[in-house]
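Risk register update: the risk of archive-format incompatibility is retired. Evidence:
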Amino acid sequence: MTFWGRVVIVLVSMVFVVMLLLGGAVASNYKGLGNLIKVVTLVKGQYLYEVAPERLVEGAIKGLVGSLDDPYSVYLDKKTYSMLQEQIRGSFGGIGILVGVKDHRLTVIKPFAKTPAAKAGIKAGDIITEIGGQKTKDMDTETAVNLMRGPVGTSVELTIAREGVPQPLKFKLQREEISVPTVEGRMVPGENHIGYVAISQFTENTGNEMVQTLENLRQEGMAGLILDLRDNPGGELGSAVKIADQFIDKGPIVTIDYRVGKDITYSADPEKLNIPLVVLVNKGSASASEILAGAIKDTKVGTLVGTQTFGKGIVQTVFPLDNDTGLKLTTARYLTPNKHDIHKKGITPDMIVEEKTEPSAEKTDPQMAVALKLLREKIDR
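Archived output:
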């Protein structure tokens, strides 16, 4: 049997299974489903150009998922699925640098500590002119990142132009497993024992990073904390729950409300970090950020400062498919401890403070200023 014949049989089987699963509503519209087979047959026999059968099958899957009209439910091709898995894990095979395009040149923004790039002496501000022999002129950052990433143990050569160094520098770097830090913490200079922690996204590593960061700040004498979730797009649910548990001593953190199956409620363990807490949020705080912010607001263990959050209160599950592809499908919504559904609504801060939007020579952060004022008052009591 030809490959085309197998494709038609697969599609017929798909139609039959869908009719069995969905019952009368689909069976009554069997002619509409039959059109799928007709279209495949017409493309095979009449279309001007030859099309690979696997491309048609993939297109049919994309069309099915696209018909849900849900921007968060998507078919993931092999490349996209691999990138999503790396994002969730928070690690990948690479050399450990953050790059960007400045003045049309691929520039090192910063090397991450203890990575091949940092150990080799690559510095912020270095201009990458070649990656593995390929010129980087007019190269976009996505292409550059893909060239630098690869299997752990393999090598890549960078050619770098550095200010003050007349000759190009060449670095042959062996790729390692890179874990990009998602939590940055420090004591606020000139303040009375106030710590500051920013979370850029939630990966599988973020919860553990946060626990270690909080412990380090406590050893430095932290008596109050500013937690910055601004422009954090979310990510892995478990890390958000683990971080919320650092501040909440009892009761629910979040409830996952499924249409099919039993709901799941994540609850706090008794121990908590008992210090004054202010959380900064804005319209870029979404998904897992809102899970954390909503739990803190409902349980009143901290004060939310900033602007209305994004309003993504639904949960996606990633299902692996054949050929290293996947399906990200909306499977549930989440509810805050007080059972609030914030999807398409967002979370309103306890104190609404607008961000600075107009350019100014003065580097001020109105939301940060309010957070510091609140903590000073609480610590000095």
